[in-house]
Every structure is written in C-alpha cells, then in structure tokens.
Design a protein that fits this description.
globular
Length: 438
Amino acid sequence: MPVLEKTFTPKHKTKIGNGNFKPDISKCVLDEKFGSPNQENFLTYLPHSGFHNQRIELENAIFLAWYTNRTLVMPPIIFGKIVSWSAFPGRLEGILSFLKPDKRLSDCHSKNSKDTSRCVERFYSYTLMPWDQLFDFSKLRKHIRIMNRDDFSEKNLYEMLNVNETYHTRSSSRYDYQLFDELRKTDKQTPFLARMSLCKYQERKERLIFFSSLFSSTRILTHLPNNVESRDFIKRNLVFGHKTLLQVVDSIVTRLGGVGNFIGSHWRLGDHGYQTHLGEIVEHMMSAIKANGTLPALVQSYQTACPQRAIPSLNPEFDNQPIFMATDLVPEDPALAPIFSTFSCVFTLSNFTDQLLPLTMVRNQRDNAPLYQYFVPLVDLIVASRGGKFFGTMGSTFSSFAQRLHQLSVPDDEGELVSIGYTIYHPSEFHSKDSMDD
C-alpha cells in the first residue's frame, strides 16, 4: 500500500534576532496519559556525520519519543564511512540506502579481480551496528519504547511498522529549526533559522513521524522541569555496555592507578580549525593542567612505569603524577613534544598495546566486520574520563562526552573544557575525517 507522506517545511520569514520573531510559545506540559493510542505510533530519523554527532541525534530522538509517547525506531550506528548531512529530500537518504547491514566478505570472491578489490575495500569501509550492542539501554527502556531499524530502506521501514501514513520534516539547512517547550526572554540567540513548539509534534496523528535530521546538541530547548529532568535522565543513562570494551578500559585504568588516581585529558589537534590553532590549544591546555591538575592525596599505585622521555620534565611537581592523554595525533607528532617536555609521566594508548589486544577479536554480529579501529577511540575516551580530574578541548563533542562520563565516574569533579578565547568553526561538526570525533 502506498504511504501517504505529509511534509513539514519550516518557514524562515522571521529569523531570530531580527525583532519580528513571533514564535508559538504555548506551554505543553507533558501528560503521561496523552497519546495512549489504540495502536502503537512511531518516531524515527536519519543519522549522519561522525560517531558523536550520531550519538547526539540519538539522544534528541530518545527525548522526542518520550515526549510524544511514541516508539523510537532506532537506526544503527554508521561506523567508518562518513555520511555527510544534505538537504532533505536529497542525497542523504540515497547514500544511506546503499549501506547494507548484512554484507558479506565472502560475496566479494565471486567477482573478477578488479571488482573483488573494490568489493573488499567497500566491505571494510563501514559497518552498521545496533546501538544497543554498544550502549546499555536497560534503564532507558523502562521508560521509553525502543525498537531497532536494521537498514535505511524506507520500503522495509514501512513494511516493518505496517504504517500507511507518515509525517516527514523537510530540511534545507543544518540549522532549520529549534524545538522548544517554552520560550523565555533569557534564551540566547542561536544559529537556528526558526523555532517550533514541541506541542506540534505531540499533537500529530500520523502513525510515524520521520525527522530528516536531529543534528545538534542545541536542537531541543527545554525549560519545563519534567522535560529538563527527562533529558538529564537520558544523558546520565546512555552509557557504554559492551563487555569487552569495558574490560579493556578497566585493565588500562588499573595500570594507571585506578579510577581517580590520574589526570585524564583529551587534546583535539589534528583536523580543521583545531590544527590551525594547534599551538594555542596546547599552550592553554598545559596552563590549565599546571594550574588545576594536581590531585590531593594521590595514591601512587599505577602499575605501569612512567614512559622514558629524552627531555627531562620542566615541572617536577608532576613527575609522579600520571597523565593520560587521549588525542587524534600519534605520540611521535612534533606538536605533542611540548606536552612531553612539560610533564614527565604522560601516557597514551600506545603504552597499552597489550591491553588492547582483546579488541582484535571483536566483530560485528551482523556482517562479521572487525570493530578494532572503531573501538580504540572509544577506549581512549572512556579511559580519559576516569581520571581524578579531566581536561578537554572546548568545542569537541569527544571532549564534552568524556566530561559527562567523567562526572558519572568521579562525581566530586566536574571536569574542565579548556577555552582558548575564540570559537573554532570547522566542517567536522558535520562530517569529520575522524569518524570517532565530532
């Protein structure tokens, strides 16, 4: 049966800050009994960009599913291949439709040599993995109905849900519209072209609401207490649950002295605007650690000797204090030399290759693709988050997520994202060359 699609197109006649903006400011206080329909209704979206932008989209979708009392149809993680945002309708959904969850390497051997090479290269270029195989959804599922979507075929989606009517949101800009539960005069100006009340989605009667994108951590603006509490609950309980991944993390953290007994840090330096301002970022990060990075009553129980450096430390007070550095540069990169000469006990993942070995055995259950290259950056992130203090790079979604996990692991320390006095705008906010950051 053909699906009737109603499409919402945001109107941009009134832009924020031009004095004529007159949004719908109706309060929508969530009624738990609202929308208890005779039949199940659904909500889904199109993921894009790197891992952390996909995670932010997921968090927004979980909240919207809760708010509208709909079942979230959760698309898989896209590991590897960076699928950039594009206007909807457009190339995004077309590119996604070519990504297959059950591709097989053995299928490549039936082709001629040239096609076999391309087939093998394509097989290793991406993999689709259900979010609930990486994260623990046990607490979230007590409050929100969630089901997996295996692929990006709209035909398969409609058949799986048995729906004959859907409500699409059209997107012509990354920042088309921001959703809100209540507008206040204190709300800051944002890059979004329009604002829409969440009430409009709570009231939709179509069985499926289909968002073309839920990009941006500022996509949803909430003020009402129950909505603020719900978003906080989602963020606190969307945590890693993969057994092997966490065992590897625990092994490395133990060798660093245990949770809270080292300094965790993330230095994003290798791409886009970060690379342009690399020197300033390194200087500001080092200054922040020297000023605020000492741990009181440090338990010197780390099991791995401090790495030997050719240059003696310029700050002896840090000689016996391990610092774990997550970074997108290799340790030998000259840009990191000032860090190693300033602090004598700096560790990176390169010091824990033996502990990473179990990841070489981890494969995606759907297509048997190896997950090592995708899991290593996650280990980097989680280990850094478990330091007694955490220092990250302002503007990096990798750092902000590590800071959040740090607050869960070490509640007495909020962590610090080091500002360098200006905003770095970079395309990686949408499609980074490093799929694991931004």
